[in-house]
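Hello everyone,

My group is preparing for a crystallization screen and wants a predicted model to guide construct design. The compound we'll soak is 6-(4-fluorophenyl)quinolin-8-ol. Before spending weeks at the bench, it would help to have a computed complex in hand. I've included the protein sequence and the ligand's SMILES below. Output in structure-token form would be ideal because that's what our pipeline reads.
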Amino acid sequence: TQTTRPQRMLAAVQKSATRGDPRSVVKAIDQFCRQKEWAMNVGDEKGCILDSVVTEVNPATVLELGTYCAYSTVRIASLLPPDAKLITLEFNPHNAAIARQVIAWAGLGDKIQLVEGPSGDWIPKMKEKFGIETFDLVFLDHWKDRYLPDTKLMEECGLLRKGSVLLADNVICPGTPDYLEYIRNSPRYKSQYFRSHLEYTKVEDGLEKSVFLG
Ligand SMILES: Oc1cc(-c2ccc(F)cc2)cc2cccnc12
Ligand SMILES: [Mg+2]
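Reply:
Good plan to model first. Here are the tokens for the complex, ready for your pipeline.
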């Protein structure tokens, strides 16, 4: 029977990456996507920008919206300080099942908590379910029509504090116009656009970094 792309990506990780070595997992996925099949990971070019923001923020708590196959999950977690926690939300159960195995292969199971279901359902439960007061960093990389409602929901739930950083993927391609309009015009955020390219292509895309001002 036919395998799925996430299954073929996991097979490439298990074939080419070293267990317990997150950077080799990242490298194996990028190699698979460049040489075999395109896939919607943030990728190596935007991934370097992501790395620099994670390193600068040095977050104790991270929320990732949209896990897919855990490429960015592993990339972020590999840069976190020892007691830091990353919670990643994935809507699609098949992607979640693959992501869990990629996270396990990278040996990052104790830093990462993968939660299945709609982000809109889980954001209001972060305090009661995971004991999280606020997030130091949020990486938005899920469905583009959810960026704005989920950002407003995080504000309403008090999950952002003065200095919390939101980093959003795909603000050009596929594009998140309503989110960009809101965040760039809101007096409550200071935003910066990092121009780059859609993963593994020459098409323009970029990341929008926004600091919550409280
Ligand atoms: O980085 C991403 C890229 C795309 C994408 C798909 C098809 C295209 F032709 C172009 C871009 C979709 C995403 C959906 C969710 C999170 N990230 C995505
Ligand atoms: Mg993306």
